[in-house]
Design a protein that fits this description.
Layout (H helix, E strand, L loop, with lengths): L1 E2 L4 E4 L4 E5 L13 E5 L11 E9 L4 E8 L12 E7 L5 E5 L3 E5 L2 H16 L6 H31 L2 E7 L1 H5 L19 H17 L3 E5 L19 E3 L2 E4 L4 E4 H11 L19 H4 L2 E6 L3 E4 L9
Length: about 325
Amino acid sequence: MTWKQNGIRHDTKNNRVRLSKGANHKEHPRAREYILVEYETRPGVTVENLQQVRAVYDQAKERWELHLVCKDEIETPDPPGNETAGIDLGISNFAAIAYSTEDADLYPGNRLKQDGYYFPKEIAKCDDSSSDRVTRLHKKWSERRAHFFHALAKHIVERCVEKGVGRINVGDLEGVRKDENGDSKNWGKHGNLDLHGWAFDRFTNILEYKAKVEGIEVVGVSERDTSKTCCICGKEDDSQRVERGLYVCETCNAAFNADVNGAENIRLNITESNSESAPSLGEDRSTGWLAQPGVYLYDLSGGFQPQEQVVDSKP
Ligand SMILES: [Zn+2]
């Protein structure tokens, strides 16, 4: 249940909120009936610019809670620098990010995937889909997902601050959801990971907010052809092979991590800069970093930790 501004009277002096009852809860539609709530805050916390009040039932604590939603204007600081980073969101790796400093980070999303297998299995074991246990499992799953998204966005923003990034290009979600023919991708094939478009939307929103606090702008750019185009020579060819997560360019005679290649194309924004010509940085760029991104695995106690370099030596 939600109260909007016209149903809320906020008494900031006495730390009180008066919530009007809906017409259907009153004796007479026009009766003056209210719920008066007094609140306490931690020292240093002021409740102001109240936008909404939500009544939320906490299953675990078996009680109702009121959530006060306030608008907080943040002063956007100057960006940490003028560099651009590119993020490719996907299924096999949740996020790949390419930096102008010629290095790249990969976030396989191991925790999300493990949960994506574990929770549906546990939920399926319950006979009654409306049981408390099922409700608890769904809640736990969604909390862990939210936690992962926040931790990932925080980690990426920290890396961007270190690297003087002022702008993050994110591949637009249209491209993530649709295959080359414009049809919705069959997510089920990938093992019921529950990584639907909304997960990417949700993550992008969190990233946008956390980046903004650091003065970094998040910009959606077209993902068209970013997986088919070589980020070094700019050659775009349907016959370019993507195997075992590797993008193989015959012109460059090189193999890159496919998601890093996509992220680098998104960073360069090849669609906008006319993909007819090669990416502006030229063919003399080093390519080793495209094959060997830093890999960050997530664990609940330590957060994101760099993994020992794994080089895929298979042909
Ligand atoms: Zn190439």
